[in-house]
Write the structure tokens for this entry.
Amino acid sequence: MTDSIKRRGFLKKAMIFLGLTAWSYKNIGSESFLFELDDLEDDFSRKKVSIDVEVYKFLLDNYKPNIEYMLNYTRDFYNGINVELNFRFVEKLNHSSLKSAEHLGLVILPEEENNGEGIALLENSLAVISYRNYSGKPAEKGDDYTSSVITHEIGHLFALIHSHRFRDDPVEDYSDGIPNIMSFRRKGKENSINDFQKKIVHSFLSKGKIYRQLEKIDFIFDSRYIGEIAMANNYHPVFQ
Ligand SMILES: [Zn+2]
């Protein structure tokens, strides 16, 4: 071994050492360890969540069976990962009674209010969706599509991130050809959720590590949270 190679070897070790020191210092400093996802709890015991549902009056009067169908879809979907959803129709949501991981609110509006899309506000424990097909337009995706929108938005209220958000997390847009519920590839009622996402949901609902992460950032589920997760897990965000 020549001196120059030995020197380079030493230099490399020194750089690794300094790098690691800087890395652990940074983690302790910003509490990034809290955002690491490789040591989540293995508690998959049954979780129960109440969801108050406020429906725009015109829809409730004319499309209640459709709305019940959609809520049943969402209930069955989460029942599949041992989470029990208890929906209750209310005339008006009492926002002050809503509570993260326990008691959520869902507002169902007509299509024209939000173009058949949904939004979730984790800090308010609230999802707002608009019902896509009541207007009698060609039912390209029928009630099944709106069912998947509700299930997707509730997924955000259970701390799930979009499946395409990171290049290297254990969540893909498809599992065995079936769209992930947190993807934009959803077309109807055939959607999947993987074991890693199941862990996230259960950790959040049991007020475990995922809940504590979000508590740290006041349940504001935004780019700051994505940044913390990316840094702590060495994930690379995909922006699109
Ligand atoms: Zn989304």
Q: What stands out?
A: Strands lie at 47-55, 83-90, 103-110, 118-121, 126-131, 174-175, 178-179. Residues 1-7, 10-29 have pLDDT under 50 and may be disordered.
